[in-house]
Design brief:
The complex is a heterodimer of chains A (491) and B (451). Chain A is 36% helix and 11% strand. By secondary structure, chain A is an alpha/beta fold. The radius of gyration of chain B is 26 Å and the shape is globular. The chains are: A alpha/beta (491), B alpha/beta (451). Bound molecules: pyridoxal-5'-phosphate. Pyridoxal-5'-phosphate binds next to helix 7 of chain A. Chain A: It comes from Alkalibacterium putridalgicola.
Chain lengths: 491, 451
C-alpha cells in the first residue's frame, strides 16, 4: 500500500519490520518465569509500531514538512522571543562530555560540567544583578513557582507565614503568574492596569496590605511597556513588608541596559529559551533559572554549587531551603546552550541584542500604526500590541488575521493575550530578523488590512496554503479523541 | 558594538532608516522610559568575558567537556533514575530538523500539524505502555510529573495527605515534599521491608484521609513491587494509586493500568534520551479517563478541518493557565515537547518487538551479574523480582570500590547505604549496552579478584 503524508505511524506499521539493531549479547537469556511473579508478567505487549529505518525517517520528515519553525520563516510570537537558535550550540550540547554523563557519577569525574554550571550562574548574576542563582527550575513557570515558595519560606521565617497569603498580579500578567501563585499556596489579587497599560501606583496602594506576600511583575510588561514607576512600586511593596518578583520572560529588552536588581526586585526568573537563544523545541524543553538577593539565598533550591579552590562541588546542607524542585540540576543540556550563547555575545553583544530588539519592535509598530489600532502610543520595548478592533467591524477577527498571515509565509503573533486588549495581536520581532524581513511582514499585515476592507471573506476563510484548512476545535474538546483509535483509520 | 555580530543582521544604515521611520533621533530615545536611577552606567555595567569567535567558543567548550568522564571511555553500571541505553542514530537526526527544534507550542495548529501529530502519537504510545486511557504530551521530568500527580490526587479526592513508599527515588520524595509544601498537604512515608515497600506499614498509614499511595515500579532499588496487593489495599479506603514506572520495564512487566493504577507517571529518559547530566529528560503523565479533565499541561486531540480532513489540535485547554489563570489544573506552560518527540522516534524505531528484546537483555544482563556475584559469595540485598537494577553488599566502603572500578574504566553504581541503613550497599544497573567483558571485570573488582 502507498504511504501518504497523512498516515499515523501506527498505520504505516507492519508486523515483522524492524528499524533497530540491538547490541549482540553473549549472555544467556534469563527465563522471565524464573524471575518475575506470574501475575506481574505482561500479558499483552504494547502495540508499538514496527517500521524500517527509512520508513521512520520518511514519516518524521513528512511531519516536519508540516511544521513551521524559526528557520522556516519569521515567527513574531509575542512574549516568546523567537530569536535565532545558533547551530554551533547544538553541536556543543552534543559533545559527549556534556550529553553522555550521568548526574550521579562522582563529582570529581564531572568537574567540567560543574564548572560550566558555576560559570553560567556567575554570568546570570551579572545580567540580573542578583546575589545567587539556581539553575534547577526547568522553565519559566517552574521558576515562578520556586520563587514564590521562597517568598513563602521567607515570610514563615519571619513569623508572618499565616498572615501574608496574598500575591498581587497585574491583569496584564501571563497566565502562569496567577497559576504559579496558586500552586505555591497563595491567593491571587488582580491589579487593574491603568490607562497607559501599566501598574498604577494608586491601584497598587489600594491592593497592598499586611496580608500581602508580594507582587509579581513583568518588566517590560506583556504590552511591551516599561513600568516607569518601578522604583516607586518597589518602595511601596517593600514598605508594606512584601517582596517583589520579576518575571523575566521579557528580559530581552533590557540586557545590559538595566537589571532587575537595580530596579529593586528580590527574586527573578529568566527564560533561557527566550532571551538566551535556546531552541523552544516545539514547546520545550526550556530552562528557568531563578536569582535572589542576599537575604533570600538560604531559601534557594537544593543542591547548590560551590567553588572550593579549584574544585567545584554540590552542597546539600541547606536547612532553610524550599527543597528540590526538579530532578538533578535542572535542564543541564539547555543551560549548556545558554552559556555558549552568552560567551558568543559578551556584554557588548547582549546590549546590542536589546537595542536592536527594541528598535525592530518600534519600527514595526510605526509601520503598522496607520492600519491597525494601537492602544498604547508611547515607545515600546522589544514587543508591542495592536488591536484588531477596526477590522472586527468589517467582520474580520484577529483570529482571521492570524490565519491569513500563515498564507503569507509567516507564523502568527500571539493573539488574544494580554487579555486586557480587545482582539489583541502581540508582536515580537526579535533582534535576529533583518530589516527586509520586517518590511515583508509589515507589507503582509497592511495587505491583510486592505483585504479586510475589500474582501473580508477571503480573510475569514484562511488559511488556504497549509496542510489542513481551519480545524474544528470545538468538537475536539467536546468529544475528545486523544489516542489513536485502531478501528477508525481515516481515509 | 563596532563589529557586526554574526547573529545580528541590522547594520548602521538599517538603524538610521528605522529610527527615521519611528521619528526619533537615537537609540537612546527608545530607552528613555527606563528610570535614570536604574540604568546601567559606565560604573555600573554588566561585566562578562569578551565575546568569543565560533572557533574560540568550540575550543573552550570542548575543553570543559573533555574534563568529564563519559560513556565513550567508561562502562557505566550506575542507574538510579538515569540510564545509559542504546539510542538509534535516527533519533538525533529527527531532532535536528529545525522545523521541530525551533518551533514553539503549536498555537496555530494549521501551521504546526507535524508537531501536533507527533505528540498525538507520543500520547498513544504512552497509553499503550502504561495501560492507561489518556496521556498528556509531556512534563518537565519524572519527579515533577509525580508532584503534579499528587496535586491532582489531593484536589480530585479533596483529601489532604499522600503516602509514599520508602522505596521510591530519594529525589522523588524531595520533589513531592516541595509540591506538598506549595499546596499544603501532608506527606507520609511507609518504610521498607528489605527492598520492598513494607505493606504492613503502608496499611497502617493509609486511611480515609489518604488521597493517594505512591509506588515506584520497579522501585528505586530495582525491585518489582506487587502492585496488585497495593491496589487492594487502596480500594478499602478509596485511595488513588499513583505509580511511577520505568517505561522500558513496562515492555515486559504488567502494565500499571491493568493492575489498577489511577495515575501513572515517570520519565521517558530510558527511551532514546541521552543522560545529559540529569536533563533535559521527559516526564510522562497518564490517567484513567475519569481524570482526563484534571490532567496538567498540553493534550493533543484529533479533529477534522473544514474539508473533513483529519487534523490535530491542542485540546481541553480550559484546564490550562493561559485560559483559566488561577483556576488552572497546573501552572505548566513550556513542557518537554522535543524530548517527547525523541522518545516517539525511539519507540517507532525500536518498535513493538525491539522494546521487548531490549528489556529482556536488561533483565538477562543484570541477572547474570547478580548470579556471578552471588556465586562468589557476595550478599545480594534485593535478591527477588527485579528488572535491571539490584543492590549488592560490598566488602568495603563504596568510595573505595568506586575508585578501584574507575581504574578499570568503570563507573560504579550508586551508594545506597544511608537509604537502606546498611553499610556498603551498592545499587548496580546493568543495561543492554554492557558487554560480558565489562560485567566480568566489574564482578572481579567487587569480589576482590581483580588485578
Ligand atoms: C510573560 C511570561 N511569563 C511566563 C511565561 C512562562 O514561561 P515558561 O513557558 O517557560 O514556563 C511566559 C511564556 O510562556 C511568558 O510569556
Amino acid at each position: 500500500m502507498h504511504t501518504t503524508y497523512n498516515d499515523l505511524v501506527f498505520e504505516i506499521s507492519r508486523k515483522g519490520r524492524q528499524g533497530y539493531s540491538l547490541p549482540e549479547s553473549s549472555i544467556e537469556k534469563t527465563d522471565l518465569k524464573d524471575v518475575i511473579p506470574a501475575h506481574l508478567m505482561r500479558e499483552t505487549p504494547a502495540e508499538l509500531p514496527e517500521l524500517s529505518e527509512l520508513q521512520v525517517m520518511r514519516h518524521y520528515t513528512a511531519l516536519s514538512n508540516k511544521n513551521f519553525g524559526i528557520e522556516t520563516g519569521f515567527y513574531p510570537l509575542g512574549s516568546c522571543t523567537m530569536k535565532y537558535n545558533p547551530k554551533v550550540n547544538e553541536d556543543i550540547a552534543r559533545y559527549s562530555g556534556f550529553s553522555n554523563i550521568h548526574p550521579l557519577q562522582p563529582e570529581m569525574t564531572a568537574q567540567g560540567a560543574l564548572e560550566l554550571m558555576y560559570r553560567l550562574e556567575e554570568n546570570l548574576k551579572e545580567v540580573t544583578g542578583m546575589d545567587a542563582i539556581s539553575l534547577q527550575p526547568a522553565a519559566g513557570a517552574q521558576g515562578e513557582w520556586s520563587g514564590l515558595l521562597i517568598f513563602k519560606a521567607y515570610h514563615e521565617a519571619n513569623g508572618e507565614g499565616n498572615q501574608r497569603k496574598k500575591i498581587l498580579v497585574p491583569d496584564s500578567a501571563h497566565g502562569t503568574n496567577p497559576a504559579s501563585a496558586v500552586v505555591a499556596g497563595f491567593d491571587v489579587v488582580e491589579i487593574k492596569s491603568n490607562k497607559e497599560g501599566r501598574v498604577g501606583v494608586e491601584a497598587l496602594k489600594e491592593a497592598i496590605g499586611p496580608d500581602t506576600a508580594g507582587l509579581m511583575l513583568t518588566n517590560p510588561n506583556t504590552l511591551g511597556l516599561f513600568e516607569v514607576d518601578i522604583v516607586e512600586i518597589a518602595r511601596i511593596v517593600h514598605d508594606a513588608g512584601g517582596l517583589l518578583y520579576y518575571d523575566g520572560a521579557n528580559a530581552n529588552a533590557i540586557l545590559g541596559k538595566s537589571t532587575p536588581g537595580e530596579m529593586g526586585f528580590d527574586v527573578v526568573h529568566l527564560n533561557l529559551h527566550k532571551s538566551f537563544s535556546t531552541p523552544h523545541g516545539g514547546g520545550g524543553p526550556g530552562s528557568g533559572p531563578i536569582g535572589v538577593v542576599d537575604y533570600l539565598t538560604d531559601f534557594m533550591p537544593s543542591p547548590r554549587i560551590e567553588k572550593d579552590a579549584d574544585t567545584y562541588k554540590l552542597t546539600y546542607d541547606h536547612p532553610k531551603s524550599i527543597g528540590r524542585v526538579k530532578g538533578y540540576y535542572g535542564n543541564f543540556g539547555v543551560n549548556v546552550r545558554a552559556y555558549a550563547y552568552i560567551r558568543s555575545m559578551g556584554a557588548a553583544g547582549l546590549q546590542q541584542v536589546s537595542e536592536d530588539a527594541v528598535l525592530h519592535a518600534n519600527y514595526l509598530k510605526a509601520r503598522l500604526e496607520p492600519y491597525y489600532d494601537t492602544p498604547f502610543k508611547s515607545i515600546c520595548k522589544h514587543e508591542f500590541v495592536l488591536s484588531g478592533n477596526r477590522q472586527k467591524k468589517l467582520g474580520v477577527r484577529t483570529l482571521d488575521i492570524a490565519k491569513r498571515l500563515l498564507d503569507y509565509g509567516f507564523y502568527a503573533p500571539t493573539v488574544y493575550f494580554p487579555l486586557i486588549v480587545e482582539e489583541c495581536l502581540m508582536i515580537e520581532p526579535t533582534e535576529t530578523e533583518a530589516k527586509e524581513t520586517l518590511d515583508a511582514f509589515a507589507d503582509a499585515m497592511i495587505e491583510i488590512a486592505k483585504e479586510a476592507e475589500e474582501n473580508p471573506e477571503h480573510v475569514t476563510g484562511a488559511p488556504y496554503t497549509k496542510s489542513v484548512r481551519r480545524l474544528d476545535e470545538v468538537t475536539a474538546a467536546r468529544k475528545p479523541i486523544v489516542t489513536y483509535q485502531r478501528d477508525t483509520k481515516a481515509e | 558594538m563596532d563589529k557586526q555580530h554574526r547573529y545580528l543582521p541590522t547594520t548602521k544604515e538599517d538603524r538610521k532608516e528605522m529610527l527615521e521611520t519611528i521619528g526619533v533621533s537615537s537609540i537612546k530615545d527608545l530607552f528613555s522610559d527606563i528610570p535614570e536611577s536604574t540604568r546601567a552606567t559606565k560604573e555600573k555595567t554588566v561585566e562578562l568575558e569578551e565575546a568569543l569567535s565560533e572557533q574560540a567558543l568550540t575550543r573552550y567548550m570542548k575543553g570543559l567537556a573533555d574534563v568529564n568522564i563519559t560513556t565513550d571511555t567508561h562502562a557505566y553500571f550506575i542507574g538510579a533514575g538515569t540510564y545509559d541505553h542504546y539510542i538509534p542514530s535516527v533519533v538525533n537526526h529527527v531532532l535536528l530538523r529545525s522545523e521541530f527544534m525551533t518551533a514553539y507550542t503549536p498555537y496555530q495548529p494549521e501551521a504546526s500539524q507535524g508537531e501536533l501529530q507527533a505528540l498525538f502519537e507520543f500520547q498513544t504510545m504512552m497509553c499503550e505502555l502504561t495501560g492507561m486511557d489518556v496521556a498528556n504530551s509531556s512534563l518537565y521530568d519524572g519527579f515533577t510529573s509525580l508532584g503534579e500527580a499528587c496535586n491532582l490526587a489531593t484536589s480530585a479526592t479533596k483529601r489532604n495527605e499522600v503516602v509514599y513508599s520508602g522505596a521510591i527515588h530519594p529525589q522523588a520524595k524531595e520533589v513531592v515534599g516541595t509540591y506538598a509544601y506549595g499546596m499544603e498537604y501532608d506527606v507520609k512515608e511507609a518504610g521498607l521491608d528489605g527492598t520492598y515497600t513494607d505493606m504492613d506499614a503502608l496499611k497502617e498509614l493509609v486511611s480515609e484521609q489518604t488521597a493517594a499511595v505512591i509506588i515506584q515500579y520497579p522501585n528505586f532499588y530495582g525491585t518489582i513491587e506487587d502492585l496488585k496487593a497495593v491496589k487492594e489495599l487502596c480500594d478499602a479506603t478509596k485511595t488513588l494509586l499513583i505509580v511511577m514506572a520505568n517505561p522500558l520495564a513496562l515492555a515486559l512487566i504488567e502494565s500499571p493500568g491493568k493492575l489498577g493504577a489511577d495515575i501513572v507517571v515517570g520519565d521517558t529518559q530510558p527511551l532514546g534520551l541521552p543522560m545529559n547530566f540529569g536533563g533535559p529528560h521527559c516526564g510522562y503523565f497518564a490517567v484513567k479517563k475519569k481524570f482526563m479533565r484534571k490532567v496538567p499541561s498540553r493534550i493533543v486531540g484529533q479533529t477534522t478541518d473544514e474539508d473533513g480532513k483529519r487534523g490535530f489540535v491542542m485540546t481541553l485547554q480550559t484546564r490550562e493557565q493561559h485560559i483559566r489563570r488561577e483556576k488552572a489544573t497546573s501552572n505548566m506552560s513550556s513542557n518537554q515537547a522535543l524530548t517527547a518527540l525523541a522518545s516517539s522516534v525511539f519507540l517507532s524505531t525500536v518498535g513493538k518487538v525491539g522494546l521487548q528484546e531490549m528489556a529482556q537483555q536488561n533483565i538477562s544482563h543484570a541477572h547474570y551479574v547478580k548470579n556471578q556475584l552471588k556465586a562468589k559469595g557476595m550478599e545480594i540485598l534485593s535478591d527477588d523480582a527485579f528488572f535491571n537494577e539490584f543492590v549488592v553488599k560490598c566488602n568495603e566502603p563504596i568510595e573505595e570500590v568506586s575508585k578501584k572500578l574507575l581504574e578499570q574504566s568503570i563507573v560504579s553504581g550508586y551508594d545506597v547505604s544511608d537509604y537502606l541503613g546498611t553499610e556498603n550497599a551498592l545499587l548496580l544497573c546493568v543495561t543492554e549496552k554492557r558487554t560480558k567483558e565489562e560485567m566480568d571485570t566489574l564482578v572481579d573488582v567487587l569480589t576482590g579478584e581483580g588485578k
